[in-house]
Write a structure and sequence with these properties.
Pfam families: DUF1180. By secondary structure, this protein is mainly β. The protein has no helices and two strands.
Length: about 55
Amino acid sequence: LGKKPAQMVRKYGVLAHRQDIEMRPLPLDEEDDEDTTIFDVTRMSPQRAPHQPLSS
């Protein structure tokens, strides 16, 4: 089994190695159910930001 090289990822404008990113659960606050924003970044391309046009 070969080991993949370290992969750089961008989270919230911060460029870091995947193994350096630490995530922790948000506090459970039942009162703020209406103020929730979910971001789906599964289709983001690492080569360009979503707001940049494709070059031809």
